Structures are given as structure tokens and as C-alpha cells.
Amino acid sequence: MEQLQNYIQGALSDPLGGAWMPVHEPATGAVYARLPDSTPADVDAAAKAAREAFPAWAAMPAEERARHLLRIADSIEEQRDDLAAAESRDNGKPLQLATSVDIPRAAKNFRFFATAILHASSEAHATDTEAINYTLRQPIGVAGCISPWNLPLYLFTWKIAPALAAGNTVVAKPSEITPMTAFRLSQICIDAGLPPGVLNIVHGRGAEVGAAITAHPDIPAISFTGGTQTGAQIARTAAPMFKKLSLELGGKNPTLVFADCDFDAMLDTVVRSAFSNQGEICLCGSRIFIERPLYETFRDAFVDRVRALRVGDPLDEGTAQGAVVSEEHMQKVLGYVALAREEGGRVLCGGERVRPEGRCADGWFISPAVIEDLPFQCRTNQEEIFGPVATLLPFDGEEDVLAMANSTPYGLAASVWTQDITRAHRVAAHLQTGIVWINCWMLRDLRTPFGGMKQSGVGREGGWEALRFFTEARNICVKL
Ligand code: NAD
């Protein structure tokens, strides 16, 4: 059985307390590896290594830092197939998805920020003829990066890459549910010659390792992606310590389908936006609002398409829906389907545990569920499920749909389907979400601000936003 290790001070090491936790393969339900059940002492060692590595890394010319990060990007690309297999096994997602989306994006994250830093500039302000001000953007020090299980290497590197590119050193914690590709990344960094202490990866539980990173006095910036409740807990610790905080949290994203949309293009993408990665993407559109004249046509075509999604072994090429990440999460999602029934919903398809034949018989699979007849204010339509469950709701006009779409405490992303360009802009401006896609979904340009409003988060990632977060802006005023 494979045994994962922490990556501290440039080397792989066992947890100081000598304790380990199991890693499961969601597709079989079996334990297949062990990961360090680290303690605050491991975080201390990582923070010390990062603090010591900081001055030299921060002072290194940006071009040289970029070369280190580009070497890591190259290795991720070279090892794409192995990393994708590891990601699929660890998370349950279809191998095809890990190969085409997760791993290429992890490499792209490093490449994007390695080159971005070469083009970064800061502002100057002339105060009439009296003085000139210029802004220095300097790295903060040690950044704490904490990431979730749904897009493991993709989201882990989305934080680490800008933090390192900007000249910070990092103490990072991947989700204990999906630690494997972060562990592989440690070996890649060692092989790529990243200086010791620049990146440190500590594995373990959120309440132990994550909390120790959040509270550590030598880690002045925390970048977190995960659940809203966890984000609130992190803020409670970090705010009185005046740490810089970036929080990317949960969502309950609306998809707005107007009757004048391009139906075929819409249908393909809306199926994907509801059920990609078993619905375990924070951007998935789980509440689908359909303009009333199109409702029945949409519902019937959508349900046909969803019924055709093959649920099964993530390694099979034809699999559209792999396993959900854990037994606990499977029970949570099934619990929401039961709740939807109690709330008066009609389950049109799916929502059952699936036991594929063969090696996956004990895996954690759920058939994708489509539910109608639920009021927009009910719990099923207000709480984040984060699984393969989508609800359908008819609407009459823009005001009606905006009121329902904006009714949740979340505000991460939305997508709008219409051929009327004026309406598209008008609706986009009134949606309370950090991201709006018009006639598309999850079309990503890494330069754009990424993040949510309301309880979906604080701050933005992506492009300059990320580099701004990971630097301290200082104004120098020179009297002329
Ligand atoms: P989670 O909040 O349970 O865990 C996320 C990370 O935080 C893990 O590494 C975990 O170990 C750690 N953690 C847990 N408790 C902690 C604590 N007290 N202090 C510090 N760290 C702690 O979330 P999850 O279940 O792994 O991920 C699913 C959630 O993530 C969903 O709500 C989803 O919407 C959200 N998410 C948001 C985005 C986004 O960009 N907004 C992207 C992906 C996932």
C-alpha cells in the first residue's frame, strides 16, 4: 500500500507524530493508500522552512523564479497520463476528464503565473509638480494555501502558482480526501530543483493542519477554497490576526434558459454544466430556470440526455459519471434527494445509488437526478448539494427569474441562454454572482477575476487579482 509523505524543507518526510490516515478509492470503496495525519508540529516545521527560504526566493530575479515554475509545468505535462490516472483513482472522476481538464489546467496554472510575473508592473502617481509616488508590490512572506477535493491538483496549483510567482514561499494543504496528486507534485518539485522550503506541503485533517496553518503567526496570508462554513471558521481565526484573506466558497448556481436560445447548443452545455465531475464543481449550474413556453420541451429533452449519461467505472472510456468522492458525501447527496421528495419534488430520473458490475460494485455511485415541482425557496433549492442533482423551475419573464436566481445566500456563478444580446447584458448586470457566462459555461480565461459574491467568498483569484492578493502594495512618495 502506497504511503504518502509530507514535503518540508525540500524533502519528503513522515509526520512527526507518526500517525497515518486511510486514503480511499471512491470507485471501489477500498482503502488504497495512507497519508500523514499531521499535527501542528508539522505545520510549524513547514512554516519555519518557508520563512527561512523566503528572503532568497523573494530576491531572486523574476525570470529565474519563472524558470523554476516553468520546469514544474513541463513535468506536469510530461506526466499527464500518470497524474490523470492518480487523480481519477483518488477522486472518482472519469479518467477522461482528469486527462483533458484537471491535469492540463494544473500545468497551465504554473505556466500562466510564471509568465504573468514577467509582465507585471505597478503604478506611479505624479502629484502635480510637487512629488512623484510609486507603488512597490512586494511579496508578503509565507502564504498558506488550503484547497478542496473536487478539482484536487487544479485548485491546489491555482493558489500555489501565483503565490510562488509573486515571490512568496508557501505552506500548502490539499484535501485529506484527495491528497495523491499533491503528493506527486512534491516529487515533481524535488526533481525540478525547486529550492528547499519554497513550497511545503503538509497533509492531514482540516481541523488539525488547516486550522494550524490559519492560526500560525508566521503565515500572514491565507488563500482558501472550500465550504462556506469552513471559510467562516477560517475568517474567525484569521481576521483578528489581520491576515490577508482570500476565500473561495460554496455556490448554488442558477442557469437561466430563455425561450429564444439556440436550443441544441444550450442543451449540450446545460447537461455538462449540471453534471460535469458528478456535479462536484463549485461552478455547476444546479438550479435550471426555463422560460415557461420552453419548459416541457426542455424538460423532456434534458431528461433524455441525462438518462443517457453512463454511470460507472471512471477508467472506462464511455463513462460520463464516475463515483462521488466519499461514502459520507454519497449519503449527503442521497439525503438531499429524499428531502426533495419530502418537499414535494418529482424526481424525473436518477437519484439512486448505482452498483456497477465488477470491480466497482462497492463504489460510491449515484445516477444523476433531475427534479421538478419544487418551490424556489425550499431547502433543496437554497442549500448547496455539490453532487449530481439538478432542479428544473419554470419562469415568466426577467424579473421573475432574477428574483428566484438571486434568492440564495450564495453568489458564485450563473449562466444565461438567450439570443437577445440586449437582454443578455441586462440580465447579467442584475445577477448577484461574481461570474456570468452568456451562451456558454466554464469558458475560462485565466486573466479574468474569479470569485463569488455574498456567501460564495471574499476577494478574487485569477490574473492580476491573484498577484495583487499575494503582494503587499506600498507607496513611496518622493518630493521633487
Ligand atoms: P471543506 O471546507 O470541507 O474543506 C476544504 C479544505 O479545508 C480541505 O483541505 C480541508 O481539510 C480544509 N479544512 C477543513 N476544516 C478546516 C478548518 N477548520 N481550518 C482550516 N482548514 C480546514 O470543503 P470540501 O468539502 O473539501 O470542498 C467542497 C466545497 O468547496 C464546496 O462547498 C464547494 O462549493 C467549495 N468549492 C469552492 C470553489 C470556489 O472556487 N469557490 C471551488 C471548489 C470548491
Overall average residue pLDDT: 98
Q: How much beta, percentage-wise?
A: 15-25%
- Strand order of the main beta sheet, please? 15-18-19-14-13-21-22
Q: What top-tier CATH class of the largest domain fits best?
A: Alpha Beta
What is the number of helices? Answer: 15
Describe the structure.
By secondary structure, this protein is of the alpha/beta class. It folds into 2 domains: 2-249 and 456-479, Aldehyde Dehydrogenase, Chain A, domain 1 (3-Layer(aba) Sandwich), CATH 3.40.605.10; 254-445, 3-Layer(aba) Sandwich (Aldehyde Dehydrogenase, Chain A, domain 2), CATH 3.40.309. The protein is built from 15 helices and 25 strands. The protein has a 7-stranded mixed beta sheet, with helices on both faces. Strand 18, helix 12 and strand 19 (389-395) form a beta-alpha-beta unit. The longest helix has 22 residues, at 95-116. The chain starts with a strand and ends with a strand. The mean pLDDT is 98. The structure holds nicotinamide-adenine-dinucleotide (NAD). The site of nicotinamide-adenine-dinucleotide (NAD) has 31 residues, from helix 7 and helix 8.
